[in-house]
């Protein structure tokens, strides 16, 4: 919600008027001179949207506040009403509405287009969430990274690196939505107040690493060439892509990292395939290059990569993980009911690379149970486990 600065206004006044932490107002208006607001300047108020009310015969400001369940002082401020005693029939009043419901829903498969629409809604309501484009997919789709919080402690997460594991994208974005909603409404999550986490920790998230692959699984072969002909050839002519994990070029993005890549490359297919092809070398695909650079540009204390399926938490790699990894994995297991497993016969994954390069905790979270792509009927259960793990990642 945008409002216009009036004489005598300050961010502290807005904080009191709209019952919001001052830091959220500062972060929602990053290019603003906070000490000297200019009359007529536009200020973004997070966690609110604007509604409209047409004055009818007999209306007063007091009756309107009762009818619409809005705050009188907020209405007066938004509408610059000089005489609260006098309203004109037909006059339009701006009404502030605090957002109290989640914006992220999951009524249909979660395509890149659906995610873009959700991101637009999230940023509009919660402008303290920072969005950036860290690269582009093979087909030119932007790879979005989001961050929330102001703390020196940085936690990195990513999802939907495998195409038929697209259900992880709305799962992690739902948590981001719930986190922002809790902060702006002064609520807790699982008994924990969220504002201290916001001030102490920065959560950074790439919700859909493989948008081309996700759209391939959900929508079928693209119309653009040469992508259409290539994926149909790789998929033996079938337009059914439920088993597809790779990017649009048939490279498995979670087998592209320089963590014993040479060992991994000889195990799977030696040419583009729906899954398990490691590519001709590590870090050849634009999606992986972008994710790796984003990781290198930040100082993450630990990272989480969300996959499906199995209800397990992988936390080790070649015994290179630090001692604290086991304790963190145990906490993730406690809040989710998932099984912590130190390692499996897997190399060249994102978690593997992070552990190997920085000797810091890295985790692969396998959400849900069954055959990918998991059905939306599982998502509520999946979300409960994922939300517990994501919350724990902020305090561990």
TrEMBL record:
<feature type="domain" description="LysM">
    <location>
        <begin position="51"/>
        <end position="95"/>
    </location>
</feature>
<keyword id="KW-0482">Metalloprotease</keyword>
<keyword id="KW-0479">Metal-binding</keyword>
<dbReference type="InterPro" id="IPR036779">
    <property type="entry name" value="LysM_dom_sf"/>
</dbReference>
<keyword id="KW-0645">Protease</keyword>
<dbReference type="Pfam" id="PF00246">
    <property type="entry name" value="Peptidase_M14"/>
</dbReference>
<dbReference type="InterPro" id="IPR018392">
    <property type="entry name" value="LysM"/>
</dbReference>
<keyword id="KW-0862">Zinc</keyword>
<feature type="domain" description="LysM">
    <location>
        <begin position="1"/>
        <end position="45"/>
    </location>
</feature>
<feature type="active site" description="Proton donor/acceptor">
    <location>
        <position position="366"/>
    </location>
</feature>
<dbReference type="InterPro" id="IPR034274">
    <property type="entry name" value="ENP1_M14_CPD"/>
</dbReference>
<dbReference type="InterPro" id="IPR057246">
    <property type="entry name" value="CARBOXYPEPT_ZN_1"/>
</dbReference>
<keyword id="KW-0378">Hydrolase</keyword>
<comment type="similarity">
    <text>Belongs to the peptidase M14 family.</text>
</comment>
<feature type="domain" description="Peptidase M14">
    <location>
        <begin position="108"/>
        <end position="394"/>
    </location>
</feature>
<dbReference type="Pfam" id="PF01476">
    <property type="entry name" value="LysM"/>
</dbReference>
<protein>
    <submittedName>
        <fullName>M14 family metallopeptidase</fullName>
    </submittedName>
</protein>
<dbReference type="InterPro" id="IPR000834">
    <property type="entry name" value="Peptidase_M14"/>
</dbReference>
């Amino acid at each position: 919600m945008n409002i216009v600065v009036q004489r005598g206004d300050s961010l502290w006044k807005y904080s009191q008027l709209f019952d919001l932490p001052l830091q959220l107002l500062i972060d929602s208006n990053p290019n603003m001179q906070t000490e000297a607001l200019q009359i007529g300047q536009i200020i973004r108020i997070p966690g609110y949207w604007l509604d409209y009310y047409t004055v009818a015969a007999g209306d007063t400001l007091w009756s309107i506040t009762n009818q619409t369940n809005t705050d009188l002082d907020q209405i007066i401020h938004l509408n610059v009403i000089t005489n609260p005693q006098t309203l004109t029939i037909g006059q339009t009043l701006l009404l502030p509405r605090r957002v109290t419901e989640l914006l992220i829903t999951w009524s249909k498969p979660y395509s890149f287009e659906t995610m873009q629409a959700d991101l637009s809604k999230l940023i509009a309501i919660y402008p303290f969430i920072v969005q950036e484009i860290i690269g582009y997919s093979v087909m030119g789709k932007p790879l979005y990274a989001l961050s929330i919080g102001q703390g020196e402690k940085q936690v990195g997460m990513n999802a939907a690196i495998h195409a038929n594991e697209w259900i992880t994208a709305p799962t992690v974005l739902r948590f981001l939505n719930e986190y922002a909603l809790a902060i702006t409404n002064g609520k807790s999550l699982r008994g924990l107040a969220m504002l201290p986490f916001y001030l102490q920790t920065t959560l950074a998230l790439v919700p859909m690493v493989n948008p081309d692959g996700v759209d391939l699984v959900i929508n079928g072969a693209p119309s653009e060439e040469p992508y259409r002909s290539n994926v149909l050839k790789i998929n033996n002519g079938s337009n059914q892509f439920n088993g597809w994990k790779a990017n649009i070029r048939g490279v498995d993005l979670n087998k592209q990292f320089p963590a014993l890549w040479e060992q991994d490359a000889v195990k799977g297919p030696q040419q583009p395939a729906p899954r398990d092809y490691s590519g001709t070398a590590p870090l050849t695909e634009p999606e992986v290059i972008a994710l790796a650079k984003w990781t290198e540009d930040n100082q993450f204390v630990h990272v989480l990569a969300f996959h499906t399926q199995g209800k397990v938490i992988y936390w080790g790699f070649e015994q290179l993980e630090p001692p604290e990894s086991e304790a963190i994995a145990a906490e993730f297991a406690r809040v989710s009911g998932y099984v912590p497993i130190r390692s499996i016969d897997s190399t060249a994954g994102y978690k593997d690379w992070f552990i190997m390069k920085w000797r810091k905790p890295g985790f692969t979270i396998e959400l849900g149970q069954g055959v990918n792509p998991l059905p939306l009927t599982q998502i509520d259960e999946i979300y409960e486990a994922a939300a517990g793990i994501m919350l724990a990642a902020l305090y561990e």
